[in-house]
Specification:
Blueprint: H1 4-25, H2 33-45, H3 50-67, H4 72-87, E1 102-107, H5 114-127, E2 131-136, H6 142-153, E3 161-163, E4 166-171, H7 178-191, E5 196-200, H8 211-225, E6 232-238, H9 243-256, E7 260-264, H10 274-281, E8 286-290, E9 298-300, H11 303-311
Parallel strand pairs: 1-5, 1-6, 2-4, 2-5, 6-7, 7-8
Antiparallel strand pairs: 3-4, 8-9
Helix pairs in contact: 1-2, 1-11, 2-3, 3-4, 3-10, 4-11, 5-6, 7-8, 9-10
The structure holds guanosine-5'-diphosphate.
Length: 312
């Protein structure tokens, strides 16, 4: 991946806000209770949450004892080890191509970066010459549909975009029933020999109807169209909302049994610790992280790289 190095520096740049209060901790003169207290405060400030913070502190103290470390600067490396190990279970790539087609349902509250992330993901799939059908199941928001179409058809804004053996097309119906649009899209995906069907769902409804009920219905309808689907239920969360992101992971996971996360806006957040909280309290795999608004700013998640970037 040619953009990998550039991405890492952007992540580091972004997480500087999270890491700045942490960095100060290691410039203390000795390893004592005051250092650990300051570290605890910095971790909590970074939205690491009480449970993950407690876990990290205990794990770190053990590492300090076992390695007989006496230099505060060396504690930083040990914290990178602790954090990497905690985040490791979140590290899992999204696998495509085991089904005909792979059906992905993408959920998340408005503003989280759902449409942008789907666009970025679709571009990756197109570059891998996959045949992709998008279901614009957010039938209320005309903007969401239009934005999807723009991402899908960047080139000329009309018709299907083709790249080698791959292509991207979109199924939509303004004001239609979201579940019906999704059902049609899965069936069309099967009929057209697609590799991937992506259902973009609403993040807020104009009626009193409960969002989770609507999403559960869409999930049921996908299973009706293809018995082993959906293969992926992806939640897009805004990493910049910190502990709020964890609350969303819990709520959506309880209702829909998530298979993966896309954590956006990790460029420039002071709350990067939330990934540790997710790892400790609701470890749903992080397929991708968003570190900016450009196409190449959707990257696979690496626990160690993230821990290093956070503490660099
Ligand atoms: P949706 O309502 O969930 O579909 O959210 P959108 O995809 O429309 O994104 C909301 C805003 O967040 C837009 O201005 C995006 O450009 C921005 N955005 C999305 N992902 C990222 C990211 O990783 N980093 C930054 N800085 N902005 C992002």
């Amino acid at each position: 991946e040619p953009s990998r190095a550039g991405w890492l520096s952007r992540l580091k740049e972004g997480l500087r806000k999270t890491g700045s209060s942490l960095a100060g901790v290691f410039s203390r003169t000795k390893i004592d209770d005051a250092l650990y207290e300051e570290l605890e405060e910095a971790l909590l400030l970074a939205d690491t949450g009480v449970k993950a913070t407690e876990f990290l502190l205990e794990d770190l103290k053990r590492r300090v004892r076992e390695t007989r470390t006496t230099e505060p600067q060396a504690v930083k490396g040990l914290l990178v080890d602790s954090l990497s190990e905690l985040l490791k279970p979140l590290e899992r790539p999204l696998e495509i191509g085991r089904h005909d087609p792979t059906v992905m349902m993408v959920v998340g509250v408005n503003g989280a970066g759902k449409t942008t992330s789907i666009g970025k993901l679709t571009r990756h799939l197109l570059e891998a010459e996959q045949k992709v059908l998008m279901a614009a199941a957010d039938t209320f928001r005309a903007a969401a549909r239009e934005q999807l179409a723009v991402w899908a058809q960047r080139a000329d804004g009309s018709g299907v975009q083709v790249q080698g053996a791959g292509w991207v097309d979109i199924v939509s119906q303004q004001g239609g029933d979201p579940a019906a649009v999704t059902f049609d899209a899965v069936n069309a995906g099967k009929a057209r020999g697609c590799d991937v069907v992506i259902a973009d769902t609403a993040g807020r409804l104009p009626t009193q109807l409960h969002l989770m009920e609507e999403l559960k219905k869409i999930k049921r309808v996908i299973t009706k169209a293809q018995p082993d689907a959906p293969h992926e239920v992806l939640l897009v969360v805004d990493g910049n909302t910190g502990q709020n992101a964890l609350t969303q992971v819990r709520a959506f996971d309880d209702a829909l049994q998530l298979t993966g996360l896309i954590v956006t806006k990790l460029d420039g957040t002071a709350k990067g610790g939330v990934l540790a909280a997710i790892a400790r309290e609701r470890p749903v795999p992080v397929y991708f992280i968003g570190v900016g608004e450009r196409l190449e700013d959707l990257q696979t998640f690496s626990a160690r790289e993230f821990a290093q970037a956070l503490l660099s």
